[in-house]
Predict the 3D structure of the following.
Amino acid sequence: MESGIADINREGASQAAGRSLNRGPAQKQRVFYFAVILGIAILTFGIYFNSLKNHFVNWDDPGLILKNQKIRSLERENIRELFTPKRASTYQPVRVLSYAVDFHFWKLNPMGYRITNILFYMVTCIMVFFTLRILSSHLRDRASPDSHFRVALFGSLLFAAHPVHVEAVTWLSARKEVLQGFFFFLAFYLYMRGKEREERRRLIFLGLVLFSILLATLSKPSAVVFPGVIMVYEIAMGKEKIFEYLKRHWLFCSVSLIISAVFIFILMKVMIESGGIKAYRGENILSNVLITVYAFLSYIKLLISTINFSAAYTIQISLPILCLKNIVLIIVILSLLVISLISLRKTKVIFFSFFFFLATLLPYLNIIPISTLLADRYVFIASFSYAFLLGILFDRFYVYRQKRFSEGFFKLLSVAIFLFLLVGYSFMTVRQNTIWENSYTLWADAVEKHPESNTANALMGVVYMELGMDQDALKYLEKAVEILPYDYQSRNNKGIVYGRLGEYERAVNELLTAIRLRPDNDSIKINLSVIHQREKKYDEAKKIIDYLIDKSPQNSANLRFRLAMIHKETGQYRAAISELNKSSELSPHIINPYEEMGNIYASRLGDREKAIYYYTRGIEAAPQAKTRVEDLRWMVQDLQR
């Protein structure tokens, strides 16, 4: 008995001594981790610093930020409204909420929004480091802890610097990518850490995983692929059969699948209602299958070949379908698939990397045709696989030994090559940031690189429209419609340009075609009404506005204002006053109706008192519109003399 007690005492003393001896290495490890986090933060901020001076661009930024009234308030009612799905509207409430926070602090200063994007990218890259470290330890169980650290360090720094991420970070409307990325990698990290915990603590981790992936999906619905990523990971681990895993974790799997199913339904509904799902491209479904093949290989090329990134791409399929090039590409895809499946027995990292890449790209491969064929932002999460493989490659080179060379030769060479690649990526990223400086630099670059891109030509046309260079705008808009005849937005813009050029018949034809292509788009109908009004065809203009008001009387403030302007032009001043009153009742904080009522009473009806009354109402309604308010004050003073 005494011997047993002595053994226990010796064991306890040994453990205490071990803990004392391990304090040094543990402290050293914390210092290393702090240095890595600081290094990632400095790198990401440094390479994106020159993007802080960039402007908003005319690719969703106006609608999502500049003109979006939903981001103007952080009140509880407005936040609840953000999280309520709307018909024919994207459902990404976390992204919109982040814009609302930005607006609270920065108003419409683009620098503030860019700082937020960079900060989220920074924490995403830090999360990639921790995720790579634990993933390496799970899939490379024979490697040393130092090896796992190096894999995470090499991989996360290259991930942070890779120029393919510029669109996701620098384009303010792509904030959904960095938001989704952070929560996605956080969920994956927590899942892997939770697997190491005892049963009770594991449940807490799995609950945090579900919450994180819910936030990722609320940032961007394509996070619905997360259950597929977990399956890929579990198969790669191979510690238990997949059916046994599903049986043991049925609750977690069920909840994660329910989250995915709900958001898949929401995503499909939104895309159908908004026209995001397109017809199959080409003559038949085989053409679309080829587009999927081309897209998959194009994303691999984007990661490996870091030149000629663009805001818009085109895919040119070789015809006929069974030509040599297409057969070779299909063989390449099948070979990658077979190699990845075979590697499961010996090299788990290849299996995991290929199928992680495939799973996270599935929403973007045009299996269901979407409006954008290729985009840099679509490979944001998938590029994690590439960073993982690069990290392992540099680590293997780092520890390589050859008798003819000194022990430190390959260490030095691997670090030198790594730094060369890191500097190259960083340089390309800094350069790519300048392309996103403003709408003109962005779309001029895209048109130059991909002249057959519908998106590039359409938005270059919009740039020239905003500059008032209508003939140049028309050239690009016509090209956009030639490439994609069902591009209703470019036809709508052509109608506007023709109207400004005084070509009434052409304007009406383009707008009517746009309406046939998108009959539920009321903005096009309003543009047609404006064209009729400009040509003094008041009956046609009024007919359209009356129809739209009857369709949605509660949301007709702007429509009633437009109807009032028609009445004013035709000399029906009392009818105009009536519509302006209704408009002000629906939107009491908009200055325009009060100002117009004041103008009509002052210049048309000769009623000075009522003119002063409505000008004063306008001043009280929108005190933040300082320039307009100052103008109204001068008018009131003139009338009071």
In short: The first helix runs from residue 2 to 48. The mean pLDDT is 89.
